[in-house]
Specification:
With about 160 residues, the protein is an alpha+beta fold. It is built from four helices and ten strands; from the N terminus they run E-H-E-E-E-E-H-E-H-H-E-E-E-E. It has a single domain, classed as Electron Transport, Fmn-binding Protein, Chain A (Pnp Oxidase, Chain A).
């Protein structure tokens, strides 16, 4: 993989996240976890290129996102759709997702990612906040939270983009 500028990403965030999905990963070489995400965003905030990632409180990945200063977003070719579906369905508490999906973990100096990815965003955590019911202006969106399991929002500065 080689490093590129975020300006040179070939796809829109709508394709990358909403259509293709991503693996959100945090931890280190000793212990990490990943989860599939199809909600999130890329943009500019505080004069920095950032990722907006959303994690529900029951997800195992949230522990790693909370404890680590960095995380990664790995994007894959369509041939990995089943692996992404698996990583969204099963918990890292119960299975080794990388092993089950034939994914090879790799580690930058700051965050884990997967060698099979076509694009990786390595992010430094800048901001964390829990969503809460009172902040929803469109109350119909609360139907996404029947169990009151509101996402925790993570904003991370994109510090490195790796491209296959």
């Amino acid at each position: 993989m080689h490093e590129i500028s975020p300006i040179n990403l070939e796809k829109t965030p709508f394709e990358m996240i909403g259509k293709d999905w991503m693996l959100l990963t945090a931890g280190d070489e000793n212990k990490y976890n990943t989860m599939t995400a199809s909600w999130g965003g890329l943009g500019v905030l505080w004069n920095k290129n950032v990722v907006f990632a959303f994690v529900r409180p029951q997800r195992f990945t949230i522990e790693f996102m909370n404890d680590c200063d960095y995380f990664s977003c790995s994007f894959f070719d369509e041939e990995y759709r089943n692996a992404l579906a698996y990583c969204g369905k099963y918990s890292g508490r119960d299975v080794d997702k990388a092993k089950e999906c034939n994914l090879t973990p790799d580690f930058t100096e700051n965050a884990p990612f997967f060698k099979e990815a076509n694009t990786v965003l390595v992010c430094k955590k800048l901001f964390v906040q829990d969503m809460n019911e009172d902040c929803f202006l469109d109350k119909s969106l609360l139907s996404n939270y029947e169990n009151n399991d509101y996402h925790r929002v993570f904003v991370g500065e994109i510090v490195k983009v790796l491209k296959k």
